[in-house]
Specification:
Layout lengths: L1 H20 L2 E5 L5 E5 L5 E3 L2 H10 L4 E8 L5 E2 L3 H5 L9 E5 L2 E2 L1 H6 L4 E4 L5 H5 L4 E3 L7 H12 L2 H19 L10 E6 L6 E4 L3 H9 L6 H5 L4 E3 L12 E6 L7 H11 L8 H4 L3 E5 L7 H14 L10
Parallel strand pairs: 3-4, 3-8, 4-6, 8-9, 10-13, 13-14
Antiparallel strand pairs: 1-2, 4-5, 6-7, 10-11, 11-12
Helix pairs in contact: 6-7, 7-12, 8-12
Length: 318
């Protein structure tokens, strides 16, 4: 009798597991589409590394394939993911699926995903032929809100709540270093070593959320533009001025802080003398990971902003 009970117990356990694995629910994506998705996704495809793969991996979602980038010699990589989570294409089982605007559909189908995320609406229809596909554009949400939406979609709200709690605890500690009476403006800009373009941002992933959480303000001229980002001409360069200016550098030797500065000199000779923050050494260069879309990026920014701004003597803009 006991020998019969064991196989029966195993069979019942497998049946319960199979039923659980097959559970689905309806989720409404950013296009208003109601999609039947797994209750807890286990084989996920991501169409964007920095805005989708990074937060999904941080939420402990099993990403089996992701779009990424290519280096100059054609080597694929995931932007910001290794810097913040230590996960790369080389040290994981994540398959490279092409770039974010050129996906390998055959490879995606071969991975047998149970859920696909894209932030480009033109990909929804072809991807939906392979597996349930959600159109979610994280750029429409501040990081914490976007993370919650992704967590809900993938069935990982429990992980989201833990990450949020950790961040809020750290924020409470760090806020003590930024007196409320200080009115500090911090400009967020982006340029490249080539020196062809300069952008200003009101919303750039985790950085602008951390600035707001710490009570640091974007300059009013940038806010007045009413855009998430906009290009700045050489004649408009003073738009990006503030008590502090943050720009960015990449991991490659050809895109370090010195190279980005040199690019700004190509963009506008003697540019530094025209900006208060640069002229008095209050221009800061952060790594690309600082504008990642994750709680780890938020916490990185708390550390960087504390190191560079909190408790130091600085000269405010006149």
């Amino acid at each position: 009798m006991r020998t019969l009970l064991l196989p029966l117990t195993i069979l019942l356990s497998l049946m319960v597991h199979t039923a659980s694995a097959a559970e689905t629910r309806i989720f409404t994506d950013d296009a208003g589409r109601q999609v039947e998705v797994p209750a807890r996704a286990e084989r996920v495809i991501s169409q964007n590394d920095n805005r989708l793969t990074l937060p999904l991996l941080e939420l402990r979602v099993p990403v089996v394939g992701s779009a990424g980038r290519l280096t100059g010699d054609g080597t694929p990589f995931l932007r910001t993911v290794p810097d913040l989570l230590g996960i790369s294409l080389a040290n994981s089982d994540i398959e490279f699926l092409g770039t974010y605007n050129d996906l390998d559909y055959e490879k995606i189908a071969g991975l047998k995903p149970d859920l696909i995320f894209t932030q480009r609406d033109e990909f929804v229809e072809p991807l939906s032929r392979i597996a349930p596909t959600l159109y979610i554009d994280p750029n429409k949400y501040p990081v914490k809100d976007g993370m919650k939406k992704l967590a809900d979609a993938a069935g990982r709200l429990d992980t989201y709540e833990r990450l949020l709690d950790n961040y809020e605890n750290k924020l409470t500690t760090v806020q003590n270093h930024f007196p409320e009476e200080q009115d500090i403006t911090v400009s967020v800009s982006f340029s490249f070593p080539a020196g062809e373009t300069l952008y200003a941002y009101t919303d750039l992933g985790a950085l602008t959320v951390a600035l707001d959480d710490l009570g640091l303000n974007l300059p009013q001229p940038i806010l007045d533009e009413g855009k998430r980002s906009f290009s700045v001409s050489p004649e408009q360069i003073q738009l990006i001025d503030g008590d502090f200016i943050i720009n960015f550098y990449g991991n490659e030797a050809s895109a370090g802080p010195e190279e980005v500065r040199a690019g700004l000199e190509k963009f506008l000779p003697n540019w530094c003398a025209q900006l208060h923050a640069c002229e008095i050494d209050q221009m800061i260069f952060f790594p690309y990971a600082a504008f990642g879309y994750s709680f780890s990026a938020l916490e990185l920014n708390l550390d960087l902003l504390t190191t560079h701004i909190a408790g130091r003597q600085f000269t405010p803009m006149p």
